[in-house]
Amino acid sequence: MSRTTISLMVAMLFVGAQATASDIRRVVTGPDAKDSKSTAIIDSRVTLAPLATDLAAALWVTDSYPINLSKGDTRDKSVGVSPPDNGTQFGVVEFAPLDADHPTPPNWHRTRTVDYVVVLSGEIDLMLEDSVVHLKAGDTVVQQATNHAWVNRGKETCRLAFVLMDARAP
Fold first, then answer.
1. With contact defined as beta carbons under 8 Å apart, do 160 and 93 qualify?
2. Torsions phi, psi for 76 (to 5 deg)
3. I need a surface site. Which of 24, 25, 55, 130 has the fewest CB within 10 A?
4. Are 12 and 161 in contact (CB under 8 A)?
5. Helix, strand, coil shares of the chain as percentages rounded to 5?
6. Over the stretch 29-56, which tens digit does the pLDDT of each residue have?
């Protein structure tokens, strides 16, 4: 699993390079139905939704470990921010710059997950209970079920890619 996860993280660094601010290209590979040769079973654009409580775009979701391969789209398994029990969720979220005239308080939260995060573009502050970590494009985070919030104090939208993995409660 670790080699696959590392490959996925490297691929995520390149996903946002050509995307517009409102969508992201998603390519899913798998065996073809005829003779099980590798093929792109999904190659489409996914529109990023405004950030509420969910990931702006869940790109792929699993609901078991070891992971079952899927021939169809798994986005409908998304249940919000956290993945299903024993599952994973791969997604993208964008944070607009903080509005200095009408600042909203940080959305503090804790999920029962281990998250791999890659800053694809922009800058963002990872708020922790006793510190703030400033992150820039190319930076990565391993978030282990701790209370945290994200605040974009920059001048441009910040795009983050996430892989959230269900974990045992701390």
1. yes
2. -70, -10
3. 130
4. yes
5. 10, 40, 50
6. 988 888 888 989 889 888 876 655 445 6
